Amino acid sequence: MTAVLRLNEISVVFPSLVGGGNLTALDRVSLDFGPEEFVVALGASGCGKSTLLNVMAGFIKPTSGDITLHDEPVTGPGKDRGVVFQRHALLPWLNVIDNVAFGLKLQGVGESERRAVAQENLELVGLSEFHAHPVYQLSGGMQQRVGLARALTSNPEILLMDEPLGALDAFTRENMQELILDVWRRTRKIVFFITHSVEEALFMATKLIVMSPRPGRIAREYDLEFSARYSELGNARAIKSDHEFIAVREEVLSLIHGEQAGGTEATDP
Amino acid sequence: MNLLARFRKREEAVDPYGTPGTGRSTLISVTTIAAILAAWWLVTQLELIRPLFLPSPELVIAKFLKISCFDHYWQSGAAALGLVDEVVAECEGFSENALHQHVLWSLYRVFSAFLLAVVTAVPIGITMGMNRYARGVFDPPIEFYRPIPPLAYLPLTIIWFGIGDFGKIFLIYLACFAPLAISARSGVRSCSIEQIHAAYSMGATQGQIVRQVVMKAALPEILTGMRISIAFGWTTLVAAEMVAAKAGIGVMVLNAARFLATDIVFLGIVVIGLIAFFFDSLMRWVERSLVPWKGKM
Questions:
Q1: Which tens digits make up the pLDDT trace of A3-52?
Q2: How close, in Å, is residue B122 to chain A by CA atoms?
Q3: Contact yes or no for A103 and B219 at CB 8 A
Q4: How do the domains of chain A map onto residue ranges?
Q5: Do A93 and B293 make contact, defined as CB atoms within 8 angstroms?
Q6: Which distant-in-sequence residues (6+ apart) come within 8 Å of A53 by Cβ?
Q7: DSSP symbol at B82
Q8: What's the pLDDT score for residue A1?
Q9: CB contact set of B243 (below 8 Å; sequence gap of 6+)
Q10: Nearest residue on chain B to A87, judged by CA atoms?
């Protein structure tokens, strides 16, 4: 399996806000993304997950290391990498369908054509009936589905999702997890997905990376198949209450808690 | 009392417990205006204050009919329709002009200054928000002249541009420019970094970001800036018309003050207030229809 997107020894150092020192957000992180992979990054706040996503999106230039897409260096944002944000990313002056079609408008695609593509993607996320609604009248979950449809409309090779479900309530969140897996199975995009929730991470990932803070590093990688099992069986609750699932969940939890304990010890003089 | 009942009902239907200042205030405002007018009428009717200080409403209305040449135009209209044979009433006006001529001159000055300010201040303000060089260049002069009263630099505009209309429009233009540039500049900040990043990752160019994201997001603040700006324009009008203007509401008020014609001063104030109020209502309507999403995301 050849890697499509390759991160090689990426480090990001920010000038620290307190004192004169530096803050190492990412410390020599290497990661490969193969075709059709669903990679989930999990970790406590400040472990560099979002920085990693921003590097991949091209919003942050790494201090050292290089990032390549099909062996071409990534130098800035581009439509080959679509981004779904946690919130505040839709354009309230456009209605649902024009938000979804916005990327094609930027590329100069004609109105009828871009609306047709947008309508297809709205159907994919189950919002085709809401195409004429103003986005600010939608619920948080629906807004995130619009954000997903919008990212898909530019037909990117990779979907970068920065805690897309972080602001949603628990019930909406579970539905959205299944919806995103369905969309992923149908579109076969590479996905990089950030979350705080261990259960969400295990359920969705084909590859899980657990990150540790100060400096941000990949503590451990897991290859998982719960999402594949969900695609076959279609029963999310059964998978999440499976003893194997629970065993891995406990392992990951103790890994994260251990890292946090280790982290606090390390900062003591 | 059907209206009052509906008013109460709408008041109950709104925001959750403890939200400050809930409920509609229209009826209260109407009552207040009526009370002020009634007090004005009563005080003058009882002759508590001499007409020199406070002319009665009737007096002001009579002056309005006289200066606006109401009878003259009424008869002219009737004569045109063949209802009367000749126009008897003469058009006296005030300061050699009828009221509508004063109003049109002032409207011309205020609105040409305002439009000039819109087409210059909005692009400059947005550039200031987008670019540190533009901000560095424009910020000191704007922040320096902004708090100076227009009366202080009125002599300068006369010395530089003479006593023609350009100097007058320029004075009003300066008053309109600063608030508009400042609101456009801060409007640039209204779009979230996520919106900009999302557009970039859909392949937007920098120009597209400015036109299709930043300027759209700045529109509510620009519209608010326009409302503030036109109000500054009206407050500067009288100063602008102080020197060598033949017609204009400001001229009318200033000349009337010279003859202690308090009723005409009142009339001028009311006319300016009403025009400004109607324009502001219009702008609020534009705001509601143009940016219904304001403050909702």
A1: 889 999 999 998 877 777 788 889 899 999 999 899 999 988 878 889 99
A2: 19
A3: no
A4: 91-154
A5: yes
A6: A41, A83, A160, A162, A192, A194
A7: T
A8: 56
A9: B154, B158, B163
A10: B194
Q: How close A74 gets to chain B, by Cα (Å)?
A: 12
Question: CA–CA separation, B216 vs B195, rounded Å?
Answer: 11
Q: Which of B276, B187, B264 is nearest to B233 (CA)?
A: B276
pLDDT tens-digit profile of B186-241? 999 999 999 999 999 999 999 999 999 999 999 999 999 999 999 999 999 989 99
Contact B208 A106 (CB under 8 A): yes
Cβ atoms of A178 and A145 within 8 Å: the answer is no
Quick one: which H or E segment has residue A31? strand A22-33
Among B194, B202, B290, B294, pick the best mutation site for testing chain A contact (most A Cβ within 10 A): B202
At A131-187, the pLDDT tens digits run: 999 999 999 899 999 999 999 999 999 999 999 998 888 888 998 999 999 999 989
d(CA B167, CA B158): 6
Count Cα neighbours of A230 within 13 Å in the Cβ-side half-sphere.
27
Q: What is the value of ipTM here, to two decimals? A: 0.90
Please tell me the predicted confidence (pLDDT) of residue A5.
92
What CA–CA distance (Å, rounded) separates B53 from B73? 31
Strand partners, A159: A82, A191
Please give the structure tokens belonging to residue B297.
């995301």
| Rounded distance between C-alpha atoms, residue A184 and residue A229, angstroms | 14
- Chain B residues touching chain A at CB-CB below 8 Å: 192, 194-195, 197-205, 208, 212-213, 216-217, 219, 291-293, 296-297
* DSSP state, residue A107: T
Pairs of CB atoms within 8 A across A/B: 79
- Chain-chain contact of A89 with B292 (C-beta, under 8 angstroms): no
Angle formed at CA B130 by CA B128 and CA B133, multiple of 5 degrees:
55
Nearest CA in chain B to A78: B201
